[in-house]
Amino acid sequence: MFEFLREVNRRPEPFAEYTARELWTDPHTSKRMLALHLDPAVDAASRSREFLDRSADWIAAHFGLAQGAKVADFGCGPGLYAQRLARKGADVTGIDFSAGALRYARDEAAREGLQIEYVQADYLDFETGRRFDLILMIMCDFCALSPKQRTVLLRRFRSFLAPGGRILLDVYSPSMLAAREETVVYAPDLMDGFWSSEPYFGFLTTFKYERERVLLDKYTIVERDRVRRIFNGLQCFTPDGLESEFTDRGLRVVERWGDVAGSPFDPDASEFTVVAEVADDG
Fold it and tell me: Which domains does the chain have, with CATH numbers?
């Protein structure tokens, strides 16, 4: 028991473990994640319905998404943005590794008669010959990637952009990190049964890495026949730090916003949004 509890509280290196796929590919947790995305009253796995509508309106207007404009939604989940932008006439491709979320997205697109291409793939491995006028990565997904993964993704984004194309993504700021504390939480069926349909015991250990600006939630889930560990690391960015990452990959940030619905940039807020383009794009 002593060694087990020591492991529960062991501080790993930032981004040493990557378990994001498990949330969306495990049969039980993927259903729970999908339910959170689709709950209009919950601003957790996705935004509220009101925000989604306002955000899609702003994106379409701000980027001038004319009929047939090609949009790629990386980490599209159940298609909440893809649907809204397709209704406005955009030619949307959604990429996600969750079979369940894409099944829902395809059913909804078929029900509305929307022509949306959904691709089941890890977006870090996604390849296509298509070129996009707008690439989206929303809900701070970029923050869950390690520095190496972010390098891979930004290089892919650069190669996928059509001439004059833009990238829109949101990230957490150091204010989010400052608002969190290092804690250890234990509970039977932690998070109301989120992690398993069978009884389990759950530990949540939260670590802060001030120098690296990383927050890590480490979940240890003890079931009758197995112990699982899930790591949710989140990189927090200063605007200058994020812009440096883009610059190093041949991109440049051209706009800062408060969110993906066009709110003004607030340097003290917990999140911010950037628009980027290819650095040598005329």
Answer: 2-27+176-235 (no CATH), 46-172+238-278 (3.40.50.150)
